[in-house]
Amino acid sequence: MSSKTYAPAKKTCVIIGGGMCGQNVATALVKQDISVIIVQANAFTEQPVLQPWFLTRPDMYAGKAHTKKGSVANLETVGIEGVRYVVGTVVGLTDAKQITFADGRKLDFGVLVVAAGCHYPALMATPSETFDERLAFVKAFPGKIRAANSILVGGAGPVALEVASELRRLNPSAKIQLVTSGTHALHTWTGTPRAVIAARLAKTNIGVVAGARVVLPDDGSYVQGSAVYERADYTLSNGKTIKDVDIFLPYFGLSRTGFLPLSMTAARGRVKVNAHGQSSENSSVFAVGCSDKYPVIVGPVIQKEAAVVVANVISILKDGADSSKKLAASLPELPGEKSPMYAHLGLGQYTAMNLEQKGCLPGLCGRCCGCCNPFCPCCACCGWPCMYPASECQGKCIGKMLLSGGNMHPIHPAKAPVMAEMTR
């Protein structure tokens, strides 16, 4: 790193991931005059919450690309002014506060924040994929779905439900099945919300194989977390086999943290952290949105986790605190965020609300944005409190709100960001 142009590496915070999590951290740090570098695997970012909609509507995906209303945007659209960027695939972390890239480049840091998020095949570009390559895939994807006779979705959480419902819209006759190790789809929901989800899946002819996982082969022919578009048989952990599957889409919520030592990560690649959001093994590393602290990664959780990590990064880089010692800011307990509040079974098609999670009255009053305000104007205008516990109309309302909100990145700069220089 050139010391003539940039702050010394020991005073720099490097953030791996330029999505919602990384931007929350970077935006706050820049305001405190902290030197920040964001590392991205691609020269563009995508919004997973909107991707099921745009992925099955390639003309909309292409037409709104790199705009405030699209689900995909390049750095010129969502780059943060004052933050430097590096585009490349990180493959390793050394003990000398340095990360290495697939092409041999190296980048030093004072503090590293891992905000790599989760990998959702098909919904998000693969590392190092160009936008033209990604666009070609998106344009071909609907054809793959329409031609399939059998589609298997690994997992039955919110993302899996959303995708399966969108695939059903594209292909009314294919056999679509969800495989979950839980007892039912969206296993954290019980009572009436659970029954609503089950009824909707039955109505749309989406099957659920409960109490099992897909057994992944270890012969190197399959990379965990990747979609497969060739016909194959899949063995389940219960000994049964699902034959002649044309498309397999796994949605296990795997974090993109393969560059970290295995000792630093827990199940599904989550970074093991202490009460301060700090790696329990490497005191110079923090995690936001991909730690093992919170089971559900939603907007309010990201904001609270990012705020704590930002405070601790500032105390290390700006105030000179020893990163190996106990830090002041601690992660809060979030009992109300252990399960998703909403489940969109097709964005704009059908939305279910778990009113039992926060209580009926707060849920009814705050179902729009979670504000729990009984005088919420959104609820009054839209009439959502009358739509217990889910509805087609509510799905359309939420769909329009999400799409009108655009790519949801907090920053839309007026000028292109600066690219950082690195050593070989």
Task: Report on the architecture of this protein.
- By secondary structure, this protein is of the alpha/beta class.
- The protein has 12 helices and 22 strands.
- The chain folds into 3 domains: 9-124 and 254-335 and 407-419, FAD/NAD(P)-binding domain (3-Layer(bba) Sandwich); 145-250, FAD/NAD(P)-binding domain (3-Layer(bba) Sandwich); 338-404, no CATH class.
- The strands form 7 sheets. The chain has a 6-stranded parallel β-sheet, with helices on one face. It has a 4-stranded parallel β-sheet with strand order 13-12-11-16. A 3-stranded antiparallel β-sheet has the order 6-7-8, with no helix packed on it.
- Strand 12, helix 7 (191-203) and strand 13 form a beta-alpha-beta unit.
- Helix 1 (20-31) runs parallel beside helix 8 (299-317).
- The longest helix is centred in the last third of the chain and has 19 residues, at 299-317.
- The termini are close together.
- Residues 1-5 and 366-388 have low confidence and may be disordered.
Which secondary structure elements does this structure contain, and how are they paired or packed?
Layout: E1 12-16, H1 20-31, E2 35-40, E3 44-46, H2 51-55, H3 58-63, E4 72-74, H4 75-78, E5 84-87, E6 90-94, E7 98-101, E8 106-108, E9 111-114, E10 118-119, H5 131-147, E11 150-154, H6 158-170, E12 175-180, H7 191-203, E13 206-210, E14 232-235, E15 241-245, E16 247-250, E17 254-255, E18 285-287, H8 299-317, E19 342-344, E20 351-353, H9 355-358, H10 360-366, H11 377-382, E21 390-391, H12 392-404, E22 418-419
Parallel strand pairs: 1-2, 1-9, 2-5, 5-22, 9-18, 11-12, 11-16, 12-13
Antiparallel strand pairs: 3-4, 6-7, 7-8, 10-17, 14-15, 19-20, 20-21
Helix pairs in contact: 1-8
